[in-house]
Amino acid sequence: MGEDVCMLFNSMEFLIFFPVVVVLYYLIPGRGRHLWLLAASYYFYMCWNVKYALLILFSTVVTYAGGIIMERVRERRGRKLVTAAGILLSLGVLFYFKYVDFAMNLLVLAFRAVHIQLRPVAFDVLLPVGISFYTFQSMGYLIDVYRGEIYAERNFFRYALFVSFFPQLVAGPIERSGSLLKQLAGVHKFSFDRAREGLLLMLWGFFLKIVLADRIAIFVDTVYGDGVTYPGWYLIVATALFAFQIYCDFYGYSVIAMGAALILGIRLMENFDAPYLAGSVAGFWRRWHISLTSWFRDYLYIPLGGSRRGRLRKYMNRMIVFMASGFWHGARLSFAVWGLLNGAYQVIGELLEPLRAKAARILGLNRNSLGHRLAGAAGTFVLVDISWIFFRAEGLRTALGLIRQMLTGHNPWILMDGSLYQCGLDEKNFRLMIYSLFVLLFADICKWKGIRIREVIARQDFWFRCLVVVGAVCVILTFGVWGPGYREAGFIYFQF
To answer: Which of 214-228, 256-270, 449-463, 475-489 has the lowest mean pLDDT?
Structure first.
């Protein structure tokens, strides 16, 4: 993806664009609002690259036409052919822009293995931002129509808005047609309560992105950018922090998207649910990137047979799903390893579960105790964090090199002697990062226990609510990563 991107949520352009969209949206009468939102969504997307609009329009036309045709075709075989054609066309575009160079390189290696020299063709295409997200969302609609779970939308403009709705267009959550499309069919009146809740969500998202993720990124980029200078425990600390960087970055985007949509009267699905508090890798994946995980479950894992065809087939299906998830993120073997590693964690965890239960009985351990749950969460974090190395590294060889440098660099004293303050963040900013992580931990614990902080704030009097909003804005402006030479950082998942 190119560097000349614009209209980031954390950009001045968006802070001007969004209020204008909201005001005009509620001033325009009736169903003309959908046309306004559609125009705003395409403008938002074309700010990245005008040509991108042709791709999203192609995906929209193909899946819209597929739904209409399926409604008229009664034979099951004909409906299958229409669905398959729509999916293949959508995946064909995705393959060309995201995987063609990778496939060509694999082909060259395969021919080289049999001593045939093949000159690779460099396509050098620019990856359109968010193409994986809107492609999967539109394919999900087509499959839902085939299954009879949603009607075929006849209003082309409304369907085009479903595919291009700007708050969640470039990085999700990947919405289901049964939720978002039906909401877009209604006319929403302005609600002060929804606007207040949406604003609080957006402020929380800006805190996660600007105060936490962008600050952590400075440390992580410094260390990962020079593993020779920063071996051993530098890399271990940076890897642990990257787990929080990607969480705050992607969670921050999702929360801002939810807040912006809510102000417009649309409720998007929760994409994260305190994943690092999970006691197992399987639990982590039920709480991380929920929209993508559930998409693969419903549209790939279950059609493959799920867990209905025996244990061996279940494990194979799970590994296929996680390998597909890895490649969904990008055309690199390191992404595939990341996915397979997370799938293997779950398979091994399930196989070892009887042994763990037996050991707990023999040792008299209470698996529901706080200590046991904390140990499970810590172990899960370590396993997931190891897999993040393959996600963060620029390739498989780089990832393996980083692991080797972690294991061979014996310098634990850097944790105590202030050396960590020389990795892009001075002592003040490093401590601020740690304090902010405790704020995140507190919020996640509240979420885990079912305490909705927004509802607690909403029950307070007007002046307290105003104080919370003003205080949050001041914290973001004061402690966010701003200053001379600052350029708003793109969200990590925009590259997918």
So the answer is: 475-489
* Range with top average pLDDT, 177-181, 241-245, 304-308: 241-245
**Total Cβ atoms within 10 A of residue 403:** 16
Quick one: pLDDT at residue 202? Answer: 94
Please state, rounded to an integer, the average pLDDT across all residues of the chain. 88
Euclidean distance between CA atoms 347 and 355, whole angstroms: 14
Unique residue bearing structure tokens 């496939």: 103
**Residue whose tokens read 């399926």:** 70
C-alpha 233/C-alpha 261 separation (Å) is 42
Element (H, E) at 106: helix 100-113
Q: Residue 300: which residues within 8 A CB-CB, separation 6 or more?
A: 320, 321, 324
Q: 118: which residues sit within 8 A by CB, 6+ positions away?
A: 107, 108, 111, 112
81, two tokens:
């052919």
What's the confidence (pLDDT) of residue 125?
A: 66
Q: How confident is the model over 8-61, as pLDDT tens digits?
A: 888 888 889 999 999 999 999 877 889 999 999 999 998 888 888 899 999 999
Residue 225, classed as helix, strand or coil, is coil
Nearest to 325 by CA among 310, 335, 313: 335
Instruction: From 300, 349, 353, 348, select the one nearest 322 (Cα to Cα).
Output: 300
Among candidate residues 257, 252, 291, the one with its CA nearest the CA of residue 271: 291
Which structure tokens are listed for 8?
């980031």
Write the single-letter amino acid at 132.
S
Residues 66, 82 contacting (CB under 8 angstroms) = yes
Residues in the chain: 496
Active site residues: 329
* Helix (H) / strand (E) containing 180: helix 177-184
Q: Give the pair of three-digit tokens for residue 329.
A: 């993120």
Longest dimension (CA), the chain: 76
Phi, psi of 488 (to 5 degrees): -55, 130
Whether this model's pTM surpasses 0.85:
yes
Using alpha carbons, select from 173, 206, 204 the residue that is nearest to residue 15: 206
Q: CA 465, CA 472: separation in Å to the nearest integer? A: 11
